[in-house]
Amino acid sequence: MTLDRETFLAVVEDSYSAYYTIHQNEGMTELPLAFRADYYSRDEKYWFTKSVKIWANETNELCYVFCAPHFDLETAERCLDYVIEDAQPRVKPHKEHQYTNFKAVFLADSFDEAARKAIMKRRFTKNYKYSLHGYSMLMTAAVDLSDCSTAANKAGYPLVKYFRKLFDARK
After folding, report:
1. Which stretch of DSSP H or E encloses residue 75?
2. All residues at 6 or more sequence positions from 83 whose CB lies less than 8 Å from its CB, including other chains
3. Each residue's pLDDT tens digit, 31-46
4. Taking the complete model, does pTM exceed 0.90, yes or no?
5. Residue 66: which of 142, 165, 169, 147 has the closest Cα?
6. Taking a C-beta distance cutoff of 8 angstroms, is the pair 142, 151 a contact?
């Protein structure tokens, strides 16, 4: 079953807009970036009053969704480099920061086999102050709309499950 790329992009954007802040690509880059979705979460636990904080925790995600009819190796690598370069300055590590994950999602009707492999093999991790101030990790996914399949790197396995649910909802 083949899905229409623009329709599926609207479904993905609507799905992310429930919890994420959506930033459309209006002059951010010449790459086929459809939108960037930012998620920020902070949890705190107090003892009797807010002045006696027991713990606090921040978890963040920056998701970059690229959409094009076809991705070749060069375009995919440029997009992955852009995600890492753009997302790193947005990380603000401190003692209550747990992680900020970067997601790179590629929606296309077809992929070069080399591009799919590059997306699946790309890894990036960074620890801040020996992980005492958190870490960052790159999660990638190549979503092929021609056969409704998703390929991801090891860190991006939750994205495979997420897109499988979206595919099932569209059937």
Report:
1. helix 73-87
2. 64, 102, 104, 138
3. 999 999 999 999 999 9
4. yes
5. 142
6. yes
